[in-house]
């Protein structure tokens, strides 16, 4: 991965305009396609497999008048007047007649109808008119909505002065969130942080530019997908928040590494490639964790939430791709102008830094290396003492606070750990009262007409009138459908929590009955959810008593089912993301304790963030300051979305912070190599401090930027998005500054060198992910091996392979020029085949050096696998066809195993012919494995390689367990 990104970064640096124009062209195409085919977002929610959804589908088939979305308008008479007066009655009934003729309106309930009760308040000061539409809210024509507003406005104007006529209901309950100027404040804060971090206005603008391009493209693609998928209106804003935050941060990580390297004197092109290969590898890994967590939102099995997760994942994926391509391209545009202005330190601090640097050099000379980051060391002048002194000077001068902070928390690790855990535990206390609900009109701004209608209905009729429940079932076997429904309604009206039964009637064909229940509590009140569960608990009783299979449905019941499903999904989703973090971090850090501390820290961050959200939105602390329109339950999918997003971002900080600690620890252990009396625990502590100091500046800037971007959506954000934005902003601040930059160093100091312990069996089982760019550093160090611009097709030095403590081969040194041939002979078939597969990039060697077609292995094994043909003749049904497949295409090297098994002279001749034909088209280098070199030489001679040399892999025995060879040049 790191070597691939290294090459990609170099190519992007050299061809900046191609990269930039390509991204802009994609943006134009996606934006144009959205403008032509996009259909807009939807605010409808459904949840297949639940009783409420099944009930809606049944109503849609047999009772369409009650299955679609609904609306209502309330008429409130001025003081001293009654809605029973003729002026009110005439005006309202005329308006009802006009509304019934609108497109999409199925039915309008007249409060003055003798068959209707409960729609005129007890004090006769208010009348409620209900409207039923065909289909969901998105199916209602905009013209109908406009006409409804006009008609109710005209009604209000025609009634006595002081009368309130307000339109509301489910049709107008959800607002379409938009972008306000407040969100721009987040970008301004991000720009300021970038300027301070880079000390360059030019550099500060590049991460913002790349993030904006990535977000614009992702939003265009998301909106384009509305042409064939249902996208909730919250989805684009969530993608916008995430895309901006991670887009800026990912570019920041790469550019900060590049700037440090250029300041140290490295060539800008080489630095851009190296930064993309090292920091870019961490960016890819961090992006993958976010992607998996977002896609994991499908655990809840709720379609709109799954789509939301996929859309947000698309935004993050594009941010990663933009970061590893457009970022080095921007660096190619600015070339070496990335250093920024130099900040002068006070004279006293400079003198102290110089003295510490000299002492640091003395320590190195005595075999006591300072544990500075690899990049800091490589940025120094020549010589180990000068490097360490330079790094120490930079660390002290530029990162003084970070050095003092990590020194403080690691000197008192027990106190720090206990304080952080207790403090976050206290902050998390309000999370125990967290209640979930889908958004309704009661969460809209107080001056919104739908919110005004909601409040007036609750005031004059009771809160339950804003969220009636619908019970429906088949009554085709009943001989008295009217009496049956009347008896059923009478019994339900006696249940606790039921205000009244507004309707209990069969449909026109008398095969389906419907009961409309008005609860005593509001739609988002937990007591309403309890009533729904009680009604469902009486299912068997109603079936036995009345012979009707009742289902509880309606908008309120659907919302309750979604909230319950999301609540149930939190634990398995939490297990999924925590388990995932354990596995991924174990792969990256080759450690058991680092993943455990990371996962525990993530859980602390999540529950603390939930505690703050609950304190604001349910306890009302600071609600007015944050413009919370209504204190109460929060949107149902906030916890699971916040858990998914925070998981990915927490892993970002863990990776960028702890990877530098591991890098310093590994380099320090290698530098000592047994020549120092320092204890491993002291080395580990030094690595924690130096790694923290080296990465704290960038991690701090990244966290502040993310906090600013998320927090900007809180004050004026959409009511659905506001709790998510608050949870993410608080979670980011807690996770970055309290958990990752305080708790983690303290715990790492407590663990010492045990932090990097991993059982050998698990180390063999886990795949390797080069997140620290070690392959890039190795490739740079061996750039001139075996000689600059080498012409060798294959060259190896002291190559070895050890599997499960068993030496397969070792000490292999060879060189094969283009068009040459080599025979690998040996009695051990496993060893000879392993040797060929190592050359072909299918197996990674465990020691030595190997370069194939100019590419250093194992870092470039992906390229080698694609360009080196492999023919395993022993297992092939048709050996000739197998060899043809191996040599076709752009193959310049082919390895052939199993020549011994081909005894038929005709087949051997055909194999030689295939090799001969391939060599006529292009120069083909051939490597053959065999038990006896004599078996392969005739084949190679017939193919044009009569003098092919061979190497002999010695079979293992009790006294010489290793396979060894002497150096062979071909």
Automatic annotation (TrEMBL):
<dbReference type="InterPro" id="IPR004869">
    <property type="entry name" value="MMPL_dom"/>
</dbReference>
<feature type="transmembrane region" description="Helical">
    <location>
        <begin position="634"/>
        <end position="653"/>
    </location>
</feature>
<feature type="transmembrane region" description="Helical">
    <location>
        <begin position="694"/>
        <end position="714"/>
    </location>
</feature>
<feature type="region of interest" description="Disordered">
    <location>
        <begin position="344"/>
        <end position="393"/>
    </location>
</feature>
<feature type="transmembrane region" description="Helical">
    <location>
        <begin position="601"/>
        <end position="622"/>
    </location>
</feature>
<feature type="transmembrane region" description="Helical">
    <location>
        <begin position="726"/>
        <end position="751"/>
    </location>
</feature>
<feature type="transmembrane region" description="Helical">
    <location>
        <begin position="569"/>
        <end position="589"/>
    </location>
</feature>
<feature type="compositionally biased region" description="Basic residues">
    <location>
        <begin position="344"/>
        <end position="353"/>
    </location>
</feature>
<dbReference type="Pfam" id="PF03176">
    <property type="entry name" value="MMPL"/>
</dbReference>
<keyword id="KW-0472">Membrane</keyword>
<keyword id="KW-0812">Transmembrane</keyword>
<feature type="transmembrane region" description="Helical">
    <location>
        <begin position="171"/>
        <end position="196"/>
    </location>
</feature>
<dbReference type="InterPro" id="IPR027417">
    <property type="entry name" value="P-loop_NTPase"/>
</dbReference>
<dbReference type="InterPro" id="IPR001036">
    <property type="entry name" value="Acrflvin-R"/>
</dbReference>
<feature type="compositionally biased region" description="Low complexity">
    <location>
        <begin position="370"/>
        <end position="393"/>
    </location>
</feature>
<dbReference type="GO" id="GO:0022857">
    <property type="term" value="F:transmembrane transporter activity"/>
</dbReference>
<feature type="transmembrane region" description="Helical">
    <location>
        <begin position="208"/>
        <end position="231"/>
    </location>
</feature>
<dbReference type="InterPro" id="IPR050545">
    <property type="entry name" value="Mycobact_MmpL"/>
</dbReference>
<dbReference type="InterPro" id="IPR000731">
    <property type="entry name" value="SSD"/>
</dbReference>
<feature type="transmembrane region" description="Helical">
    <location>
        <begin position="414"/>
        <end position="438"/>
    </location>
</feature>
<feature type="domain" description="SSD">
    <location>
        <begin position="186"/>
        <end position="333"/>
    </location>
</feature>
<feature type="transmembrane region" description="Helical">
    <location>
        <begin position="237"/>
        <end position="256"/>
    </location>
</feature>
<protein>
    <submittedName>
        <fullName>Transporter</fullName>
    </submittedName>
</protein>
<feature type="transmembrane region" description="Helical">
    <location>
        <begin position="277"/>
        <end position="299"/>
    </location>
</feature>
<keyword id="KW-1003">Cell membrane</keyword>
<feature type="transmembrane region" description="Helical">
    <location>
        <begin position="305"/>
        <end position="334"/>
    </location>
</feature>
<keyword id="KW-1133">Transmembrane helix</keyword>
<dbReference type="GO" id="GO:0005886">
    <property type="term" value="C:plasma membrane"/>
</dbReference>
